[in-house]
Amino acid sequence: MPAAPLASLRTVVAGVAASVAIAAGAAVPATAAAKDLPVPWSPVGMVAGGVDPDSAAGANDFGCRPSEEHPNPVVLVHGLIGTLGTNWPTMSPLLANNGFCVFGLSYGRIPGLPMVGGLGPMERSAEELRAFIDRVLRETGADKVDLVGHSEGTVMPRWYLSFLDGAAKVDKYVQITPLWDGTNLVGLGDLLALAQSIDPAMEDVIGGLVGVACGSCAQFMPSSSYMRAVNDAGRPVPGITYTSIVTKYDELVSPYTSGILEHPQVTNHVLQDVCPNDFSEHMAVAYDPNVAQMVLNALSPDRARPVPCVPMTPAGPLGDVPPIGLAPAKSTGRGGTSGRDGASGTTAGSAASRCSAGKAIRVRVRRGKGERIRRITVTRGKKRLAVRRGKALRSVVVRRLAPGRRSLRVRTVGKRRDGRTVRRNYVVRRTVRC
Asked: In terms of Cα–Cα distance, which of 317, 102, 291, 44 is closest to 178?
């Protein structure tokens, strides 16, 4: 996405944040014990992060060793003109408070602009990400990392996953305001497509003009060679579990539905479907408590908690923010618990909440271009769990499963545009929660 509109947006919100900070005397300590790290829910944290752009509370303790509860270190990947310090002052301490080993980098800097990142070509930034993740794995002894990306942090890592052997090193990928199809902000994507239709070489001309100050900006356009390359390589990379979180008020990802991908590996959340009173736009989601709970739930689904639905504006929450964190860890069977309650800061009781039948889950089906699914059947072992018939089906709801990670067999019957019948038979894995 072009730098100028994003820069102006950050300037406006930063101004609001600065006023709040002056009035309230707010400050975010750079370091603290993990259990005491403050978690800011407003742009104040982003202003404080600008003082030290390469630091965020709770991040980059290379002496941290992943626990059995959270075996994957979490790597935070910021957005365009962001840094570790400005993009993650909320998420970094929250994750650390909940027992994760948290790491993050500032990438994509260009000469003369040391305080912002993400401006370099994304292929080059992906090399930086590869080197950083290799260091995290080497020093923590972990086999894989989980990624949490915002904006460009959902696009640039796709090069790492597809072309730099990153897929084998990533387990979960939580994407905040992703751009599977790029953005057509202020019509620039249409302009590029029109220019390419006249002369394919025009992409280099337009990219060169924009790239004087921002080598990555033209790459966000839907028809850019970068977007074509990562999409042709495969949108979801096999073996990775994706969670996409989008906001209807995203002024930079246009349309916001570019962040939604219907695929069995991807769980999509539209923020306003979860909380209608949340008016967070592209930047505000980085310090949004509702989004933060969704991120925690995606990283640790066995300890998920309901999203509290805090009313939000771009300047922060309206009213108090309830505790955001993971549910108590399950009992170890030795009179204690295997972890700490990250929301309250107290040790969970020995009686873990249990249920015999978990919540219903929605299973989305695979379909080819132009294919209409007429029947969906879901089974587990020899038991038929759900059958749905219709003219153009996309999903089916499965109920009455016990909590836990479940393997389900999906069978579909569909029709192509040419009238041919298409039958599919495959296995999906879903987590059923209480």
From this structure: 291
